[in-house]
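Sequence design from tokenized structure. All designs in this work follow the same two-part layout: the structure record, then the generated sequence. An example of the structure record is given first.
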């Protein structure tokens, strides 16, 4: 992520958390409150240390900080990311719900919205049972 994009996201309310090992930043994940939901944003783990629980630790920490039910958006073709979130209790929402939720909660391009999916926490699904 370019510095200007990082600054823009922070001005828009994304709070980033990092995971360090031996003084080296090896993972980041952001959290953003938008209305009645909390979004998980920009999750990145250094490739060389993936599958070591770092993403799970960051996600667990952010879940404890979340004030609202959680939603996560990611690329539809990022099957590894979708599997990661499903493993951690999130459910992939049907396309018609994604098409409603993305413009409501995310500020992304139409192209990005078309190629994305949305996953929801169990808390969000309980509050919106028609969407599961």
């Amino acid at each position: 992520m370019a510095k200007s994009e990082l600054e823009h996201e922070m001005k828009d309310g994304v709070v980033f958390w990092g995971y360090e090992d031996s003084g080296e930043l090896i993972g980041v994940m952001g959290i953003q409150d938008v209305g009645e939901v909390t979004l998980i944003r920009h999750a990145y783990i250094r490739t060389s240390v993936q599958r070591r629980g770092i993403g799970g630790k960051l996600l667990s920490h952010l879940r404890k900080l979340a004030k609202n039910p959680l939603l996560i958006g990611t690329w539809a073709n990022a099957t590894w990311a979708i599997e990661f979130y499903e493993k951690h209790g999130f459910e992939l929402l049907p396309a018609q719900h994604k098409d409603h939720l993305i413009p409501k909660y995310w500020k992304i391009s139409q192209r990005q919205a078309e190629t994305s999916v949305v996953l929801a926490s169990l808390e969000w699904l309980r509050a919106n049972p028609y969407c599961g």
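The chain has a mean pLDDT of 93. We note this feature because it recurs in several other targets discussed in the main text.
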